[in-house]
Amino acid sequence: MSGKKKYSKEVLREAVEEVKAGASLRATAKKFGIPHTTLQDYKKNKYAHKPHPNSALMPAEEEALVSFIFWMADHGFPVTRSLVKVLATGIIKESGRHDSTTVNLEKGPSGMWWSRFKARHPELASRMADSLDRARVHGAQSI
């Protein structure tokens, strides 16, 4: 067995709809070339995205944080991971959800929170800043 899928997401979606409409699971799986167990799992929404039960920020708060990160970057002030964690802690404190969150308000969100945050927002990218050479720094100061 090669381990590579021979069907697209669109084909899988179509097959799931056909099974939900009443078609036989095994016959539909054979027709579309999808393993019947995979089709069964998708029919039962086994792979539906579920938010983390202890999400530190509410979705609207998280979107506001992402917007702020982009605004800062557009204005020449890229935001570091540690600053994002400090901002998230501030948002939690301002919201008054001290007791309902598992975030340590002294240390801020964990590294795992950062990983999940980046996974939820693939439009964010981590980059190392280029260091300026001495001539460019002195040239910028004389302006």
Automatic annotation (TrEMBL):
What protein name applies here?
A: HTH CENPB-type domain-containing protein
* InterPro entries found in the cross-reference section: Homeodomain-like_sf, HTH_CenpB_DNA-bd_dom, HTH_Psq
* Species this protein is from: Cirrhinus molitorella (mud carp)
HTH CENPB-type domain location is 49-127
Q: Does the keyword Acetylation apply?
A: no
Entries under PROSITE patterns matching the protein: HTH_CENPB
- Which keywords does this chain's UniProt record carry? DNA-binding, Nucleus
